[in-house]
Design brief:
The protein is mostly beta strands. It contains 8 helices and 45 strands. The strands form 9 sheets. It has a 22-stranded antiparallel β-barrel. A hairpin with a 2-residue loop joins β34 and β35. The protein is globular and about 85 Å long. It starts with a helix and ends with a strand.
């Protein structure tokens, strides 16, 4: 018995010693939030470490803490003259070093920094210091933690207050506060980019699969209203995405295999002791790879292929600031060939290419002033063909847009209270738009689009941040836009505030004007006349405009529990509606661009429509602590519009209510080297709307006829979905691997997409969305 006890004790000692050998390095840089300057001598301490370990920043603001045990740790960061900050529950694993860039805010009153460290844990606060309300920061860890996000920022955003799906589970489009998904603005590395999703369409903001990868993304901001002055060309919401810098003194790699693709990522230093680095990620469609080796999973009727590449090269210099060369690109094809026995005799094919590349230069003109300049080239190409089993092509589209953009802003911090940011953006948009339609009665093709030209879009902005007191921050500014295609100019003032009380409560608010251009295809599309001739009616069409107002309240109910509520009102005006106010067609009289997902029309439109969205949102957020987290959001809202007839109706996206829940638990399986994560997400939201079906008219005509005099009165069944994610992570000496299973709609609920009349059955048929969608993946960090 004694020998057995000694053997067990020896084994426990052996494993405990080897467990202690599993360590990693935490390193990074500490900078001033307003000026971007390095903070020298800042203290970084690993809380609750025994013995206490930590580091101090050097003359360039860099720090390094070695031999940190694998597992979760919290860091306390402090510097004399600055408000301290705590970074909680940072995951340390053997496969990759932890690289951080942390911003500290200069204190308005003289204090010992350590006094405020423990209380400054503002999880989810936006990276943009000019944002005060309706803005959060989404971390890369949240992308991986939330169930069934598939590392997609848009799918992760579905868990936020006021956000719901666009009505198609195959796509990652999101509806924010009742607005159309096409009002979204995507930005990458400070530059507006085309829709960064595979299988997108003209004017849309979504697609089936994101081109972005969590291997290269850093924490990014997500806005739902009342945007700061530096953002233009947006009325709905903003994804302001950032790529992280690669590891600047150690090479690291990742391999990932899953049903959505095979990916390889690599990063490491460029030169020695230069703080320069590279980061690259490539992914190829798993289904396409299977098809190449003879495993045709989708069968002979469908062909799906995609690939994407993203990279960032960061070059640090001693005297000329820093340079970053970055890029994102994707290609995808989809082809459908119907079964002539069972399906309609029509086939279609879609090819989509998207790319964005840029060079960013940041020059520090003084300790309190920096200049950021970006030269970028972005573009996309959509090629679509619809035909009758390749006998005759009925419709084609070949849409190409390329934008050369120069953007720059200067940021000057006058003192701890006042910071000014002024900048401008000049975009040259080159377009080559072609679209044909087969007119059966004339037995000929007509060109709806046939334009090759260029135009300019010019933007400017100014923002002033004034910290009136330690607890009150006011951000004010103005944005101006000028579209040379039709000469329209828009001046948009913005204002936001954030006021903290001593009891931990915070009052927030934001107000401003915003605008959004339509797709170039809409401006250039031609209405072809019988007998010859055509006209582009919408070339002078103005932007859709919106006035946003938001007030909010936040309260920490405990160390890791936050309550947040926001009340908002949005008034939309100059909305494109039917141009002829004497029309008697009910569909035309009730038409509004606010109800469209994408696309364009050649029919004449006019900026005579209006709309409004208003509601209240509640969020209860339990931060990740003690190995678990949850977030509950509830939204009650109305979304209305008026077409050319002036009648107020529900918009397509007026679901009236949204309930979201996301939560999870992390289990340590015997030691910090092995962890099991279980995550769930639940979505319950009011259904989308459509015009009710006129059954009698449909029966007489033999196809679906809708009653557009009651447009969008019919609301589809409530949207219900439960997602599940389970992952297992194992740390080894120099590597770490993760096996995960994520299932979207684990219960297989058949949510209704739309309804149609079926003549053969004399019944209304409900088309349903995607059922159970699983994704199994394996990731190795080394």
């Amino acid at each position: 018995m004694k020998r057995l006890i000694n053997l067990v004790a020896g084994l426990l000692l052996f494993f405990s010693v080897h467990a202690q050998d599993f360590t990693q390095t935490i390193k990074g840089r500490i900078i001033d939030q307003q000026s971007g300057a390095s903070i020298i001598g800042a203290s970084v301490v690993v809380l609750n470490s025994t013995p206490t370990i930590g580091g101090v920043t050097d003359v360039n603001g860099y720090f390094r803490i070695q031999h940190v045990a694998v597992g979760r740790h919290s860091l306390a960061i402090s510097s004399i003259g600055y408000e301290g900050k705590t970074l909680p529950n940072i995951m340390v694993s053997t496969g990759k070093e932890v690289v951080l860039e942390v911003e500290l805010t200069e204190a308005l009153v003289e204090m010992e920094a350590i006094e405020v460290v423990a209380n400054n844990q503002e999880k989810g606060q936006p990276l943009n210091d000019m944002a005060t309300v309706s803005a959060i920061s989404l971390s890369v860890e949240e992308l991986g933690r939330y169930a069934a996000t598939f590392d997609d920022p848009a799918r992760a955003a579905l868990s936020q207050a006021g956000v719901t799906t666009g009505g198609d589970d195959l796509l990652n489009e999101i509806v924010i506060r009742g607005n159309s998904p096409k009002g979204m603005l995507w930005r990458l590395e400070g530059v507006e980019i085309p829709n960064p999703n595979h299988f997108g369409s003209i004017g849309s903001s979504a697609g089936g699969i994101s081109m972005l990868s969590s291997n290269v993304l850093s924490n990014s901001d997500f806005f739902t209203g009342a945007f700061p002055a530096q953002y233009g060309n947006v009325t709905s919401g903003i994804f302001d995405l950032n790529m992280r810098k690669g590891n600047f003194d150690q090479h690291e790699h990742s391999f990932q295999a899953g049903l959505l693709g095979l990916a390889l990522a690599s990063e490491g230093p460029i030169g020695s002791n230069s703080n320069s680095s590279y980061l690259v990620n490539y992914r190829y469609s798993t289904l396409a790879l299977f098809d190449k080796i003879g495993l045709n999973i989708l069968g002979d009727q469908e062909d799906v292929t995609f690939q994407d590449l993203s990279f960032k090269v960061h070059l640090a210099t001693k005297k000329s600031g820093s340079f970053s060369i970055w890029g994102l690109g994707g290609n995808n094809t989809y082809t459908y060939i119907p079964d002539p026995v069972f399906d309609e005799p029509y086939s279609d094919s879609n090819v989509h290419n998207m790319g964005a590349v840029g060079v960013t230069h940041v020059a520090y003109l003084s300790p309190n002033t920096y200049l950021e300049s970006i030269v970028s080239l972005t573009g996309y190409n959509l090629n679509y063909q619809f035909d009758t089993l390749n006998v005759r092509t009925l419709e084609t589209e070949d849409i190409a847009e390329t934008t050369t953009r120069i953007s720059s802003y200067i940021n000057h911090k006058f003192n701890a209270k006042n910071t000014l940011r002024v900048g401008g953006i000049v975009s040259r948009i080159n377009f080559n738009l072609k679209s044909t339609e087969w007119i059966k009665k004339d037995s000929s093709y007509v060109f709806v689009l046939d334009d090759r030209d260029h135009t300019y879009f010019i933007q400017g902005f100014g923002q002033w941040q004034h910290r009136a007191t330690q607890n009150l921050t006011i951000n004010s500014g103005v944005h101006i836009s000028h579209f040379l295609l039709n000469g329209n100019t828009y001046l948009e003032p913005r204002l936001g505030y954030r006021y903290k009380l001593a009891d931990g409560s915070t009052f927030t608010g934001g107000f401003g004007l915003h605008s959004r251009m339509e797709s170039l295809a809409l401006y250039m599309a031609r209405d072809v006349f019988e007998g010859g001739g055509d006209k582009a009616y919408n070339r002078d069409l103005g932007f859709t405009r919106a006035a946003h107002g938001v007030v909010g309240y936040e309260k920490m109910l405990g160390k890791n529990l936050r309550f947040k509520t926001e009340v908002y009102y949005q008034y939309l005006y100059d909305v494109p509606v039917w141009g002829n106010d004497t029309t008697t067609n009910a569909g035309e009289r009730s038409f509004s661009a606010l109800n469209t997902y994408d696309g364009y029309t050649s029919f004449p439109l006019a900026n005579n429509g209006t709309g409004k969205n208003y509601g209240v949102e509640f969020t209860l957020d339990k931060f990740f602590a003690n190995n678990h987290y949850f977030m509950v959001t509830t939204s009650l809202y109305e979304s209305k519009y008026a077409g050319v007839d002036g009648v107020e109706r529900d918009t397509r996206f007026n679901g009236n209510y949204i309930f979201n829940f996301v939560g999870g638990k992390e289990f340590q399986l015997g030691s910090p080297q092995r962890t099991l994560n279980v995550n769930v997400r639940m979505i319950y939201a009011g259904g989308k709307r459509e015009a009710p079906i006129d059954v009698e008219a449909s029966r007489n005509e033999g196809y679906t006829v809708r009653d557009f005099t009651r447009n969008f009165e019919s609301r589809l069944e409530d949207y219900k979905r439960l997602d599940l994610g389970v992952s297992y992570k194992k740390n080894k000496t120099k590597t770490a691997y993760t096996i995960s299973v994520n299932v979207q709609n684990v219960l297989g609920i058949e949510n209704v997409y739309s309804q149609y009349y079926i003549p053969k059955q004399d019944a209304i048929f409900s088309a349903t969305q995607l059922g159970v969608f699983p994704n199994l993946s394996y990731k190795l960090d080394f």
